[in-house]
Amino acid sequence: MRAGFEPVAVASASGLSAESARRRFGFETAHARAEEILSRDDLDLIAIATRHDSHAELVARALDAGLAVYVEKPLALDWDQLALVRDAQLRSGASLLVGFNRRYAPMATELRRLPRPRLMAYRVNAGRLGRDHWLNDLAQGGGRVKGEGCHFIDFICDQEGSDPLSVIAHGFPSEPELPLAATDNFSVQITFADGGVGTVHYAADAPSGPGKERFETSAPGAYAVIDDFRSGGVWKGGRKRRLGGRRQDKGFSSHFELIRDVARGEAEPPAPESFYLSTLATLAAARSLETGRPEMVTERPRAGER
User: Fold this and answer.
1) Residue range 28-53: average pLDDT?
2) Lowest-confidence range among 185-194, 210-219, 253-262, 295-304?
3) pTM of the complete model
4) Which of 158-170 are b and which e, b meaning 16 or more Cβ less than 10 Å from the residue's Cβ?
5) For residue 166, what are the β-bridge partners?
6) For the chain, which has fewer Cβ within 10 Å, the N-terminal or C-terminal residue?
7) Which domains does the chain have, with CATH numbers?
8) H or E segment at 172?
9) Burial of residue 187, with CB atoms counted within 10 A of its CB: 0-12 exposed, 13-18 middle, 19 or more buried
C-alpha cells in the first residue's frame, strides 16, 4: 500500500516492460494488452501514462468499462479524440481526472480566491528537446503546445474560472527543421467570457537562470506572483502576504490525495468540463500557430479544417 494506493495490475505494449514495472513497483500481475486490465472486476482506478496519441482511446475504453480514470496530460490531441472521451464519460458517468497537478498546488488554491476578471501571465523556461524526441513527433507526441503547453493553459483557465472564448498564438521553432506545429518557443493569449486575459510565454531557448516557471496575476484590488511554486506573494492595498514554505510544491501530493479519495468514493471528482475547456483552448492555440490568426475555442474547427 502506497499513499492509499494498492498496485494491482500493470500493462504495456511490451510484456517485458510491464514485468519490469511489476517488479519495480510491486504490482501483482503484468500484462501485454490493455484489454487484460480493462476486463478485470477488482480495480477501483485505471492510471494511463502512455504516449500522448493513445491517451484518448484508452481513457474512453476505461470509462466505458465503468472505471474511474486518471490520465497523464494531455487528455487529447485533436477534436475527434476529445469527443471520444467526452461521449464515453457521459455514457458511463465514471470519474475522470487529468494530470494537471499545478491547479492543485497550495499556492494555486490561495490565488484562486482572488477577484476576477484577471490579467495573467505564465512564463515557462522549458529548455530544448532533441530533434528526434518523440514529443516533437506530431502524430505521437503532438508537439510542445499540445504536449506540455496544455499544463499552463489549464492553469490559467482554472484560475480564471470562466469559459475561454478565443486564442491567438505566435512563435518560432528552436531548430528550422522542426515543423511549425512543433514550435517550441511560443506565446499564447487567451480571452475569457468574463473579460479576463491570460498569456503563456513558453521558451525552449531561454537560459535557465531566472527559474523555470513564474506566474503573475493582477485582479481588481490585488496582485499576486508564484515563483517556481517555491515562493510567492499576494498584495492587497499596501499589504503583502507571503506564500510558500521551505519546499517546492507543484500540487502532486494534493492531486494524488484527491485521486485516492475519489477512487474510494470519499470525494467528488472535478467537473470534467474544466478539462474539456482547457483542452479545447490548447487545440485552438495549436491551430492558431499554424494559421497565424485568432481561433475560437469551439468543439470543432471551421469546416474543412483539422
Assistant:
1) 92
2) 295-304
3) 0.94
4) bbbebebbbbbbe
5) 191, 296
6) N
7) 9-98 (3.40.50.720), 101-296 (3.30.360.10)
8) strand 164-172
9) middle
